[in-house]
Amino acid sequence: MMARNNLTGGGVQMETFQELLCSPSSVGGLPKQSNHLAVVNVILSLTAILGNSLILVSLRKECYLHPPSKLLYRCLATTDLLVGLISQPLFAIYWISIANEHWNLCRYIRDATLVTSYAFCCVSLFTMMSISVDRLLALLLGLRYKQTVTLKRTSIILAAVSVLSGVAALCYILDYRITLWFGYIYIPSCLLISVVSYTKIFRTLIHHQVQVRLQSSQPNSLNISRYRKAVYSALLVQLALVVCYTPYIIVEIVIVEGSTKTFSSHLSVIRGIAATLVYSNSTLNPFLYCWKINEVRQAVEQTIRQTLCRPWS
Question: What 8-state DSSP symbol labels residue 100?
Fold first, then answer.
């Protein structure tokens, strides 16, 4: 009960809040809901693994995308695959440990889930931001785009950000405040850059459309039409990420800011549902790729046909 008394109007102490995530008084007593959350996350984990593995195999065959752009989509698919392989199974085990009241296991799994999820989330956000910047540079640089945005430069940047995200996530174990402040700066920055990039893109496209109507330039119109489809596809993936992450962010803010005076088992379930929605983004993305990117959809269909027609011996 001491932990509950710390939840005052001044806000939730982070260490106390993390303890409450594996406290019998806060998350115990709901084995049915815990088991349901575990089952849902196992199912979503399997679909994320299958879907993103298929996307990664198909992207190897796809030749239309510029190599750096393809690398960004492969990085996003790889991150989603790792979520399905690591973070989501850990999250399911977390709920199983709660249902069976294995509190020591719960604490270890809680930390592993938070660290891996935080790292993958940071890489995903940066990749989505990079896709928006990549599309903007393709529009603004024209013929200089392929000389400026190279595979080597893109690989170095993604590798550096992946290491930085991993270090920031691991700092949670040493001092949660480092991870917390990194997120306060990093997440809004990625979202702001994405918003600015897409805003600039659509303003430029509107201006170009007016010029095309005045000059009746059919070849440029066709190129912009293909480019516009690529931008809409990237924007849809970005919006899906925002929709999946927003409920969880709201729940976390409500808890941490102390608007809720007591952290009950029912609030824990709500938080679990919101976190599951975040993980579901890793399952949703492969479907968005296939729906909006024709070249990826054709490569996926070809991969499936080859797999089904291959003789098994």
Answer: T
Distances (CA, A) of 119 to 18, 134, 150, 167, 178: 18, 22, 25, 8, 13
Report the distance separating Cα 252 and Cα 275, nearest Å.
Answer: 10
Q: Render the burial of 211-230: b for 16+ CB within 10 Å, e for the rest.
A: eeeeeeeeeeeeebeebbeb
Query: Is residue 225 scored above 80 in pLDDT?
Result: no
Residues 6+ positions from 118 with CB-CB distance below 8 Å: 165, 168, 169, 172, 179, 183
Q: Look up residue 215 and give its amino acid.
A: Q
Taking CA 82 as the corner, what is the angle to CA 20 and CA 138, rounded to the nearest 5 degrees?
115
Distances (CA, A) of 160 to 64, 119, 238, 273: 27, 13, 22, 32
Backbone angles phi, psi at 182, to 5 degrees: -60, -45
Q: What is the pLDDT of residues 240-278, one digit of tens each?
A: 988 999 998 888 877 776 644 556 677 888 989 999 999
pTM of the model: 0.84
For residues 65 and 73, give the distance between their C-alpha atoms in angstroms, rounded to a whole number.
10
- Amino acid occupying residue 274: A
What span, in angstroms and rounded, lies between the C-alpha atoms of 103 and 174? 21
Side-chain half-sphere CA neighbours of 265 within 13 A: 14
Handedness of CA 70, 72, 73, 78 (dihedral sign): positive
The stretch 225-230 carries a mean pLDDT of: 77
Question: In angstroms, rounded to a whole number, what is the distance separating the alpha carbons of residues 182 and 255?
Answer: 19
